[in-house]
C-alpha cells in the first residue's frame, strides 16, 4: 500500500538527484543530458518528492538503456493552476530505438515489455512503467508515451502538487571583516 506524502521540497533537488543517478551511464555512452525547465515552473513545491524522483529515475534510466547515441532531454512544464493545485508535466525524451504503436499499447502494464521475444537485447521485468503509472495516478496525474521507431521516444507524466513554502536558511551572524584579508572564489 503506497501512501503519498505531502511535504515541502525544491524541484531542483529532485532533478539534481535524478540526473546524478544517470549521469555516469549517459556519459559512458556519449549521450548528452539536457534539462529544460520552463521559467514559470515554481521552485518550491509541496508534494511527494520521493515518488516524483522514482518516476523520473525510471524514465531516465530507460532512456539511457535504449539510446545508443544522441541526447536525453528531461523537460518540466507547468500545464495548469487549478484551485490551489499546480499541474506539472514531466517529459523524458530520447533519440533511442523508438517503439511501434502496438508496443506502445503494452508498455504501462505489469510484466509487459515492448520486446517480448526470449532473445531480447534489453533486460528488465516490465514493472517499472506499471509502477510509474500507479504513482502518477496516486499523485493526481497520468502517464503516456509518444514514439517513432528509429527516431526515439518521449515518455511523459503529470502530477498535481501545491506551491510550497520557501525554505529560509538560518541567518549567520554578521562577521566583522574590517582589517582582515578575504579571498572570494
SSE topology:
Layout (H helix, E strand, L loop, with lengths): L6 E4 H18 L3 E6 L6 E4 L1 H17 L5 E12 L2 E10 L6 H6 L21 H11 L4 E6 L3 E12 L22
Parallel strand pairs: 2-4
Antiparallel strand pairs: 1-3, 3-7, 4-5, 5-7, 6-7
Helix pairs in contact: 1-2, 2-4
CA-based gyration radius: 20 Å
Strand content: 25-35%
Largest sheet: 7 strands, mixed
> Strand-and-helix sequence, N→C?
EHEEHEEHHEE
- Structural class comes to alpha+beta
Average residue-wise pLDDT: 85
Please tally the helical runs, counting DSSP H or I stretches of 4 or more residues.
Answer: 4
Molecular shape? globular
Total number of beta strands: 7
Helix fraction bin: 25-40%
Give the low-pLDDT segments. Answer: 116-122
Query: Ends: how far apart?
Result: 49 Å
Textual characterization of the structure:
With 185 residues, the protein is an alpha+beta fold. Helices cover 28% and strands 29% of the residues. The chain contains 4 helices and 7 strands; from the N terminus they run βαββαββααββ. It has helices at 11-28, 49-65, 101-106, 128-138, and strands at residues 7-10, 32-37, 44-47, 71-82, 85-94, 143-148, 152-163. The longest helix is centred in the first third of the chain and has 18 residues, at 11-28.
Amino acid at each position: 500500500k503506497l501512501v503519498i506524502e505531502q511535504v515541502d521540497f525544491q524541484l531542483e533537488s529532485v532533478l539534481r538527484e535524478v540526473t546524478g543517478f544517470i549521469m555516469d551511464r549517459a556519459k559512458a555512452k556519449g549521450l548528452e543530458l539536457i534539462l529544460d525547465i520552463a521559467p514559470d515552473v515554481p521552485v518550491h513545491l509541496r508534494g511527494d518528492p520521493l515518488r516524483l524522483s522514482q518516476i523520473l529515475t525510471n524514465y531516465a534510466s530507460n532512456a539511457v538503456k535504449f539510446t545508443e547515441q544522441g541526447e536525453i532531454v528531461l523537460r518540466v512544464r507547468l500545464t495548469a493552476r487549478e484551485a490551489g493545485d499546480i499541474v506539472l508535466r514531466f517529459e523524458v525524451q530520447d533519440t533511442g530505438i523508438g517503439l511501434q504503436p502496438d508496443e506502445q499499447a503494452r508498455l504501462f502494464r505489469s510484466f509487459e515489455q515492448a520486446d517480448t521475444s526470449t532473445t531480447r537485447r534489453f533486460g528488465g521485468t516490465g514493472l517499472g512503467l506499471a509502477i510509474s503509472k500507479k504513482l502518477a495516478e496516486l499523485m493526481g496525474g497520468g502517464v503516456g508515451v509518444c514514439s517513432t521507431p528509429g527516431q526515439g521516444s518521449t515518455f511523459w507524466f503529470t502530477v498535481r502538487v501545491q506551491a510550497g513554502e520557501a525554505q529560509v536558511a538560518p541567518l549567520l551572524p554578521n562577521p566583522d571583516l574590517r582589517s582582515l584579508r578575504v579571498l572570494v572564489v
